[in-house]
Amino acid sequence: MQRWQKLLDSFATLAIIALCSALTWTTLAQRNPQRTPPKRPDPPLPTEPISLRDTALMGDSRAAVAVLQYSDFECPYCGVFARDTLPVLEEKYVKTGKVQLAFKNFPLSIHASAVDAAKSAECARQQGKFWEMHDQFFRNQKDLSAATLRASAISSGLDAVRFDACMSSETSLQRVRSDQDEGKRLAVAGTPTFFIGTMGADRQMRTVKRLSGNQPLARFEETLDELLKRNTVASR
Questions:
Q1: DSSP secondary structure code for residue 85 in this structure
Q2: DSSP assignment of 207-236
Q3: CATH architecture label of 50-231
């Protein structure tokens, strides 16, 4: 009998411990519920046109649709877009005169060479060689040292003296910072960020779609085809 009594006492003790543990966890769960964080809503589309004057542009100036990207030459996802998606968009939409492509700088602070690369691209734009430099930078993102930037400028056909003077001046840096400030006002938080819209007078673009991050080609095609179709119907 004593042996059975000890066993019953042991089971009772374990049951009490288990019950106390369950009550403790229940209380803690009520105080600190594990909630799934709400999805952050997309920023609202710009209500005012975005100016593409004095901006690197590719395509027929009469094209009624434009894609503007805020980009960083060291950003891996920007590189994927430039190497894989952009060439397809060029062939399908730009060279056929349907769409213009625009580029603005948004160098991120985590990338040590991004600002100098952006300045170099701006200096190349002033000599009409932006897209040549753009392609070189994204083909060789791992080496954007000062020496490489200058070598890229020379191989792209830039005047070396003008390029050096541009890089030394505050003008190119101010232009890069101006792009950044505009991007922040448009709630650009990372790269690449794309604004797709219709072109108006004096290179003013009205945004109808915003895409952020590494987007598949199909997303661009879907948006552009729909917008081009809408414009065709409206112009009839």
A1: I
A2: EEEEEESS--HHHHHHHHHHHHHHHHHHH-
A3: 3-Layer(aba) Sandwich (3.40)
pLDDT tens digit string along 28-43?
A: 444 544 444 455 677 8
Q: How far apart are CA 25 and CA 192, in angstroms?
A: 44
As a dihedral over the C-alpha atoms of residue 146, residue 148, residue 149, residue 151, rounded to 10 degrees, the angle is: 120
Q: How far apart are CA 100 and CA 15, in angstroms?
A: 73
Distance CA 196, CA 193 (A): 10
Token digits of residue 232: 């065709």
Confidence of residue 4 (pLDDT cuts 50, 70, 90): very low
Q: What is the CA radius of gyration of the chain?
A: 28
Q: How many angstroms separate the CA atoms of 50 and 134, rounded?
A: 22
Q: What's this model's pTM, rounded to 2 decimal places? A: 0.81
Question: Side chain identity at 227, as an amino acid letter?
Answer: L
Q: Quick one: which H or E segment has residue 69? A: strand 65-71
Q: 150-209 pLDDT, tens per residue?
A: 999 999 999 999 999 999 999 999 999 999 999 999 999 999 999 999 999 899 999 999
Tokens at residue 2, please?
């004593």
> To which residue do tokens 């200096």 refer?
123
